[in-house]
């Protein structure tokens, strides 16, 4: 952490300062500083000409699996994967074993993360054991360090309980994150409901299974005045609801994941279990709607929903396979593809992957302001590579992007002035 680092000749992009220019960035003892007035002798210089220098990326939706399923991922390996993907911070979901529904588990996660390659922000459960019956200890978890609440992986089915959760969360100034799923419609389904699910003989899940619950969350947020964040949005219908709610002034934010703006339900053809997600991959029309929503501000953030699973849970019949993919090391290049295709600009991508997640979670970071902690990501937007699950830092290998030729990646990740990943 000690010493001076100079990132030389980079394109500094910081939407919080409306800054986009070729310049040097200076770091001293873990803090972003102005250029020294007198020459310093011990400077670590990295010439990053042609690269972007941006606020450290922040992922507000990952599953680190520890405690309980360390064979899939540990906090340490997840953080190493995060650093390799350009992330300096991640928010971890509470569906561990045991569930993070109390201060002791929250503290355990933070203790494990203390020396890791990324900041870890625990998200506590809304209900005890995430079973949707009784509220968990919100205040206790906040005091221990939890930054938000969710039963992610499961929806809160009881609307009365969700209302109370929003009211209590508001009193503790905590964010509610919603896994929006109406299970009476999704139960037994394993992919998007449509022509392809019929052709494959698989039970489908209609987009309405998501949008019905999105409507409820918005209605409850409007009723209680609470802040609600809709996780992993996948459908055009949900986006229309969120767009209208924002226009009315409802305190709602939303994220999507790279697989929803990159893949469609066709990725499931061949019974590819690595394309099995919750919510499922949807249609080309939904994909285009998500791209529009990333551009027009309906969606606030890109999150990975990094969900490691063992081979044994993926190499089974499609309807029995686990939902989810690893995503920390592919999120940035898939986002950069949106910039190359003209869907969004470079500054908007950084806003979606750094500035906005920091603001939504209410945590530090998301800016390169002088005097701030030096969480910084250097991106080479031209660097080409073939993504291989055999070379990832994650313990799990479940990705539909294995073998894809990708362009653009993080080449230097700096956490509070400490280099956590270097590929220059």
Q: What is this entry, summarized?
A:
By secondary structure, this protein is an alpha/beta fold. It has helices at about 75-85, 105-115, 140-145, 160-170, 185, 195-200, 210-225, 235-250, 260, 285-295, 310-315, 330-340, 345-360; strands at about 5-15, 20-30, 30-35, 45, 50-55, 55-60, 85-90, 120-125, 150, 175-180, 190, 205, 230, 250-255, 300, 375-385, 405-415, 420.
Layout of helices and strands:
Blueprint: E1 4-14, E2 19-28, E3 31-33, E4 43-47, E5 52-55, E6 57-62, H1 75-84, E7 87-92, H2 103-113, E8 119-124, H3 138-144, E9 148-149, H4 159-171, E10 175-178, H5 183-186, E11 191-192, H6 195-200, E12 204-205, H7 208-224, E13 228-230, H8 236-248, E14 252-256, H9 258-262, H10 284-296, E15 301-302, H11 311-314, H12 331-340, H13 346-361, E16 376-386, E17 405-415, E18 418-422
Parallel strand pairs: 1-4, 1-5, 6-7, 7-8, 8-9, 9-10, 10-13, 11-12, 13-14, 14-15
Antiparallel strand pairs: 1-2, 2-3, 5-16, 16-17, 17-18
Helix pairs in contact: 2-3, 4-7, 7-8, 8-10
